[in-house]
Amino acid sequence: MRAYLRRKIKAKLQNYRVALNKPDENLPTRLSKIKSVAILGGGIAGISATANLSERGFNTVLFEKSDYLGGKVGSWTFESNGETLRAEHGFHAFFRQYYNLREFMKKIDSFKHLIPIDDYVIMFGEQETQGFKGLDNTPGLNVLGMRKQGIFNWFTFVNPFSIPFLNLLSFNPKTLLKN
Ligand SMILES: Cc1cc2nc3c(=O)[nH]c(=O)nc-3n(C[C@H](O)[C@H](O)[C@H](O)COP(=O)(O)OP(=O)(O)OC[C@H]3O[C@@H](n4cnc5c(N)ncnc54)[C@H](O)[C@@H]3O)c2cc1C
Fold first, then answer.
1. For 14-73, what is each residue's pLDDT tens digit?
2. Do residues 39 and 14 lie in contact, with contact meaning Cβ atoms separated by under 8 Å?
3. In 3D, which of 169, 102, 103, 171 has the Cα closest to residue 142?
4. How far apart (Å, rounded) are the C-alpha atoms in residues 170 and 163?
5. Least CB-packed of 48, 64, 94, 113 within 10 Å?
6. Can you spell out the DSSP letters for the chain?
């Protein structure tokens, strides 16, 4: 039954490959003569702009004010009590649904630095923990899986206060195109 539903949902969602941006294939993909471009900020946006423009023949210079790259996903070292410690903003899990980011990391050869973990466990207070291991990765079935794991219950679906939460589950490619 579950395998049948997985197949049906995948087909309904066009194999999860909905083209939002249809480039004009008649336009050149590379510049005919070199142009220079300055990119400010070495976060994900700046790094990907630099890489993509370089691929298209731009002469790129990336300016970053910090001494590390990555911006919000970067990490840096600092000294404390004679020790050198590493800090980050807290974005430390590159889940599989970040497929664009992961593909880009492979392209720039930084994916090899990610460390696979068995589960992503969130701790609530001293005792309670919540993991995400074993959740179905089919849209819809993953939500039911989360209900089974106690992340929410049936009441969540009928409670008017849950509407902002339930809105997170909606996806409409047409709205994306409009924005
Ligand atoms: C804890 C945490 C969890 C997150 N979780 C998620 C998530 O689950 N999913 C998700 O999609 N996003 C998440 N985000 C958000 C995501 O990390 C950011 O949206 C994204 O990294 C922003 O990238 P950016 O390149 O636009 O900006 P930034 O990463 O902010 O990069 C901007 C860069 O510009 C540099 N800069 C600024 N001013 C100048 C200047 N004048 N000259 C030169 N350089 C300058 C800065 O030093 C910085 O390096 C999370 C963020 C945090 C902190």
1. 888 878 788 899 999 889 898 999 999 999 999 999 999 999 999 999 999 999 999 999
2. no
3. 169
4. 11
5. 113
6. -HHHHHHHHHHHTGGG--------TTS-SS-SS-EEEEEE--BHHHHHHHHHHHHTTEEEEEE-SSSSSBGGG-EEEEEETTEEEEEE-S-----TT-HHHHHHHHHTT-GGG----S--PEEETTTEEE--TT---STTHHHHHHHHTTSS-HHHHH-GGGHHHHHTT---HHHHHH-
Torsion of CA 46, 51, 56, 58, to 10 degrees: 60
Give the integer Cα–Cα distance in Å for 39 and 63.
Answer: 6
Q: Is the dihedral of CA 158, 2, 19, 146 positive or negative?
A: positive
Residue 40 to residues 49, 66, 67: CA-CA distances in angstroms?
A: 10, 11, 14
Nearest CA to ligand 1 atom 21: 72
Residue type at 126 in one-letter notation: E
Q: Return the domain boundaries, the chain.
A: 118-173+175-179
> C-alpha 39: how far from its chain's center?
22
Which one of 68, 91, 94, 101 would you pick to mutate in the ligand 1 pocket, going by the greatest count of ligand atoms within 8 A of its CB? 91
pTM, full prediction: 0.80
